[in-house]
Design goal:
Blueprint: E1 2-4, H1 6-12, H2 17-24, H3 28-36, H4 43-53, E2 61-63
Antiparallel strand pairs: 1-2
Length: 68
């Protein structure tokens, strides 16, 4: 299972959600979907988002082993 950490990084950044939407040319709904894991940014968008938030792309997501 993939845990999305985008929302957490946005909260810690100097940018608010409307600013990020404007920078990326996306809707609030799209950003919300990225933050909840309903959809994911494209690879170029993920790279740009990581650079904007000053984190590695790997920091945007966390892989959690499924419990059996």
């Amino acid at each position: 299972m993939v845990i999305v950490l985008i929302g957490s990084w946005i909260k810690q950044s100097p940018y608010d959600r409307p600013e990020i939407c404007k920078i990326f040319g996306i809707s609030q709904n799209t950003l919300s979907n990225w933050c909840t894991g309903k959809t994911y940014p494209s690879i170029p968008q993920a790279l740009k988002l990581a650079a904007l938030l000053n984190v590695k792309v790997d920091d945007l997501y966390k892989l959690q082993e499924d419990e059996k």
